[in-house]
Amino acid sequence: MEQGKQGVVVQKMIPQQQNPIEHIQARFKELEAGFRGWLAKQSLPVEAAVVTATSAAQGAAIGGFMGTLTSDLSSSLPTPPPQTNPQAMASFKQAQALSGGPFVQARNFAVMTGVNAGISCVMKRLRGKEDVQSSMVAAFGSGAMFSLVSGMGGPNLAGNAVTSGLFFALVQGGLFKVSINRKEFIILRVVQVLQRCLFSSP
């Protein structure tokens, strides 16, 4: 009879094991809440710099991953002759911007996501709210910088930067109005940018 009781006591002393995935998720949420709390106490320049850097790192990871999936197609593109007209050269640069390897894609996505997050952070802190106007200003900045960094500008860099910025702003404003989740928005915006670049006329 004592053996039965000892078995019960031993069972009670051994804690039930928690699902390791749930444990990791709970720990990640705690760390994220602590980080957000710390970030909210910082000055605007520090918060903007940290948000920009972390979002750029995330964008670089996404771009690098996408670049490994598409492999380096830029090596398969022919070299344009030296006397190529500016419109043909702009089309060639668009193809290069989208077909680069992991490093090119990582750079492009880092700029796009970092600038967007940084401007969003500043606008939210200055205006006290996150609304469609703030979202569109951030999208305009990220679209303009993406156009400049990716080399898709052609002969008129300023005009193309403004055009890309307006396109990004309109897309993000429309998606914001439809109330699409932020994570889904990033994926949709990437697809929109790729569609725009692939199907734009030279």
UniProtKB/TrEMBL annotation:
GO molecular function, one term: protein transmembrane transporter activity
Key words, A-Z: Membrane, Transmembrane, Transmembrane helix
Entry keyword annotation includes Ribonucleoprotein: no
Keyword Cell cycle: no
Entry's transmembrane regions: none
GO biological process, one term: protein targeting to chloroplast
GO cellular component, one term: TIM22 mitochondrial import inner membrane insertion complex
Record's protein name: Mitochondrial import inner membrane translocase subunit TIM22
